[in-house]
Amino acid sequence: MNIYLILFFFSGISGLIYEVVWARLLLLAFGSTTVANTLVITAFMLGLGIGGLYFGNYVDRKGSHHKIFSYLQLGIGLSSFLLLFFLPQLPRLSKAILNNIHLSQPVYSVLIFIITFIILFIPTFLMGGTLPVMTKLYVLDENRIKNGIGLLYGLNTFGGVIGALSAGFFLIRNLGLSLTQSIAIFINFAIGIFMFLPHSKIPAENRDSKSVLKNLRETKIDRLKKYLPFIAGFIGFASLACEIFWMRALSIFLTNSTYTFTIILIVFLSGIFIGSIIFVKLKEKSNLINIFATVQILTGLYIVTGCLFLNRLPKLLFGIQGILEIPFFRMFLPALILSVVVVFIPTIFMGISFPLICSLYGQEIKDIGNKLGNIYFSNTLGSALGSLSAGIFFINYFGVITGLIAVGLINLVVGFFFTLYLKNRLLNIIIFVCAIIISFYSIQNKFIFPPSIYHSPTRQDRVLYYKETRDGTIIVSEDRLTGIRSCYVNNSAVIGTTYDAVKVVKMLGSLPFVFNPDAKEILVIGFGVGITTSTIARYNIKKIDCVEICPGLREAAKYFTNFNNYIFKNSMIHFIPNDGRNFLLLSNKKYDIISCDPTHPILGSGNLYTKEYFMLCKDHLSENGVVCQYLPFHKLSPEEFKSLIKTFAEVFPHTSIWLGYSHGMLVGTNMPQTIKFESLKNLKDEMLNDPYLLAVSYLLDT
Questions:
Q1: What is the CATH number of domain 506-701?
Q2: So which residues are the signal peptide here (predicted)?
Q3: What pLDDT score was predicted for residue 103?
Q4: What is the pLDDT of residue 454?
Q5: DSSP code string of 115-181
Q6: pLDDT at 560
């Protein structure tokens, strides 16, 4: 294999490691909200596109292409080395800048984007230049343009698969973020140094051969060329928007964990890699316009047809329920199976599309860098806009199903446009018409339900409320047989009205007053449907700050008024849409009570069970302040359970553990915990009116 292909493969590994690590570090500073995550992706993609545009034009005008590539790799390594020290300090810097500035949510979002773009611009700008520069190095004559672009794009993407796999499953878990990033930095420096060595300079083959596509180029392609950058933008928009929609759809069926999203990303990139290799295997005399038109129409057909079957996807897992009892398989197998069914086939088509359109646009070796840079810029700009519009706008106003159909229609229209330039167009037109008809049927069912909502002889669920927001799909259901109601965000149960679920959230509200009956300033992290907050509001307090990462739950609270006493109308409540950890990071306010009711740590709330988070809570406590934290008793190994308690107790010198029927609570204070039996009698909730029953809920202390 040519050494340039190997180097570009390793360049892909480092690029995806950076993307994974930087996203995590930036979200620690800006919050793990959908808006923040989308803006980070957008800034990353925009930097890549600008770099591709600039260096694509630059490399055509300069010689010593191997030195340019070397400088790019060394520059990426050096700028990433500086970020290695800067990004961990970003939360403190963010607090210093934003602490005393009261910004509206839109202004804050714009500020996140600007800061992220500035921080990541240099390394992403240099990364964007690697594809056109390496193409100039590797593609030595016009007959190799098609295969050269396909191989480079494919192997770089395969490197991304390895980078995402290693970072998401092994490196970060075992080495941490800093050492993982250091490995990527080492790869860049190694490539950069190697390119300076004499044996790395492979002489160019100066051939005057004409492209095998010459005749085609002088007719159809010349008429199409002016449209190709715009087409590249459209397919980039569709690809990234589709990825966002797929991730949201699958999150309703799967565990909301880092591993789940890593698996979806790996399947997405694997499909693109295989598609690019298929493109390389196409015959040189293939009609690329015909192939591109067909691929786009098939992509659209698969996407809109898939919308018909989304709610049936969980049935694919019923046959392997026995295997899923094993924790190792439960961690990755459901995500792998469902993402292969939904994502893999269309991403193969996407993997064919990008190198194909590059080959159509750049067919002369003299300006291949410039042509490829233009297509790359248009494609990544479209990708950035696709991510931005899907993640922030489209899901919130139109929903996932409508979004997927809209994206599928983009592919269908692009394919139909190219079909008009073909002689044999009948088959494509038939597929196009069928896809349009299917899309009308698909859009009739706009709801995607989690597998938790089902019908059986012992349970008959009905949906009372359904709303897709940018932060999650919110569902309120009721069992017709028992009247028990449940609320979900994606596939995570927020609350149910069963006895054990209601008791623990009420205890999270009342228990802190046993230790600090004079508390006035309260912080609730995880408003949910407001039951904990309504319990706190019964006491003699001044104000409650409620932080909720999914603010749409406030509307769902209207279906639980028998339990929350219309707390969402209470003027004492200050509702704050944000990530709880990020709110504490940016605030200097002290609280007498901090009550935290996150979802289970394996459902995406792991950052609210860390030592860093508990230390933030401690820093925001008044002298007699109390922290009350939900403690799950299920779906944790004994080692994980003990580790969670130990982490909490390391931060709070005085810790006690309480039992809330089938759930637990951790209570932490800076002062020794003294429990007066009289205080157990004064709790203002009918469910907690038996002091003896409450006393036996006291399990352990430190």
A1: 3.40.50.150
A2: none
A3: 67
A4: 65
A5: HHHHHHHHHHHHHHTHHHHHHHHH--SGGGHHHHHHHHHHHHHHHHHHHHHHIIIIIHHHHHHHHHH
A6: 95
* Residue range 216-448 in CATH 1.20.1250.20: yes
Confidence of residue 213 (pLDDT cuts 50, 70, 90): very low
* Torsions phi, psi for 550 (to 5 deg): -120, 85
Tell me which residue has tokens 């069926």: 253
How far separated are the first and last CA of the chain, in Å rounded?
Answer: 62
Please give the Cα distance from 79 to 87 (Å, whole number).
12
Tokens 């028992």 belong to which residue? 482
The CATH-assigned architecture of domain 1-202 is Up-down Bundle (1.20)
Taking only the tens place, the pLDDT of each residue in 118-160 is: 999 999 999 999 999 999 989 887 778 888 999 999 999 999 9
Same fold, 1-202 and 506-701: no
Q: Are the CB atoms for 508 and 628 separated by under 8 Å?
A: yes
H/E stretch holding 283: none
Separation of alpha carbons 536 and 11, rounded Å: 54
Handedness of CA 418, 423, 424, 427 (dihedral sign): positive
State the pTM of this model. 0.88
Higher pLDDT: 553 or 36? It is 553
Q: Return the closest-CA partner of residue 262 out of 160, 124, 178, 392.
A: 160
- What is the overall mean pLDDT for the chain? 87
Two tokens, residue 191:
């490539």
Which DSSP helix (H) or strand (E) runs through 684?
none
How large is the average pLDDT for residues 559-563? 94
List the domain boundaries for the chain: 1-202, 216-448, 506-701
Q: Are the CB atoms for 354 and 38 separated by under 8 Å?
A: no
Q: Rounded distance, CA 350 to CA 344, Å?
A: 10
Comparing 454-468, 557-571, 606-620, which segment has the lowest mean pLDDT? 454-468
**Residue whose structure tokens are 């050096």:** 78
Enter the DSSP assignment of 424: S
Q: Which residues contact 302 (CB under 8 A, 6 or more apart)?
A: 345, 346, 349, 408
